[in-house]
Amino acid sequence: MINLASDLDGTIYKGNKLIDGVEETYRLLIKKNVNVIFTTNNSSQSPDVLKLKLEDLLNQKINIENIITPLKLFKFYVDHSKYKLYVYGSNNLKEFLKNSNYSLTSLEKSNAILIGRKDDINIDEIEKIINYVKKGKTIYCLNKDLTYPTESEELPGNGAVVKIIEDNMKIIIKSFGKPDFFYTQYFVDSKIKVDYVVGDRIDTDINFAKKINAYSILVTSGVSNFLPEDSADLKLNSFSEIIPFII
Ligand SMILES: [Mg+2]
User: Fold this and answer.
1) Which CATH architecture group holds 2-70+178-246?
2) Rounded to the nearest whole angstrom, what is the distance from the C-alpha of residue 220 to the centroid of ligand 1?
3) Entry pTM
């Protein structure tokens, strides 16, 4: 069986709209016995919410095992009984973690800090976090995306805050997003050999493909890249063009 890892935002859909031709291509891939694994850095929606969204857009049942997100990997790798977590992030994120049995607390009482995304960057809060990390608190982040796409524009992502902390402290924060440690490790630990990666970002998707030794396909249906696009093995306009290169 061929394993194909596909990004979501900018590759399968944009906002709430499926990208042209994706539904037909997805059906054909399934018919040809290609296992499509959805690999996203989206950490503002739970895997269940993404499953419903995909089922609605693709008119197909989706196996939740085939949706890999930073939140899923956080749950997989971080034992909920081990930490009292301070979460820098949205209420949605906090709710998801509480529902997954994590105990959330104040920065002072926490023994680990998780960086997610908030709509407004809070510099005071970031400075406090830096001080506590200097004193030895563990820190993780959900992904290092500098921006994230909305239907109309790209806005500052988790990575903007992560970069402030990393640059200030000269550290590397462990991340649950593509192409970072836990994301690639998950495919090693679950013994999934990915043959192809499709995505619209060089910094996340194409670098993820390289780290797991998969063939990388860049699609230009999503974001504009700040890194050179010739690092991808193949460049196409859209997911709907991949079939001849895979089957
Ligand atoms: Mg994308």
Assistant:
1) 3-Layer(aba) Sandwich (3.40)
2) 10
3) 0.93
Could you tell me the distance, in angstroms and rounded to a whole number, from the CA of residue 205 to the centre of ligand 1?
Answer: 8
What would the pLDDT profile of 141-160 be if each residue is shown by its tens digit? 999 998 887 778 888 888 99
Distance 134 CA to ligand 1 centre (A): 33
Architecture of domain 78-175: 3-Layer(aba) Sandwich (3.40)
DSSP secondary structure letter of residue 204 = I
Supply the DSSP symbol for 14.
E
Token code pair at residue 238: 């859209």
Write out pLDDT tens, residues 218-242.
Answer: 999 998 888 888 899 999 999 999 9
Q: How far apart are CA 91 and CA 76, in angstroms?
A: 21
**Ligand 1 centre and the CA of 64: distance in Å?**
19
CA–CA distance, 240 with 155 (Å, rounded to integer):
27
Q: Where are the alpha helices (DSSP H) in the chain?
A: 22-31, 47-58, 70-77, 91-99, 123-134, 158-169, 181-189, 207-211, 243-246
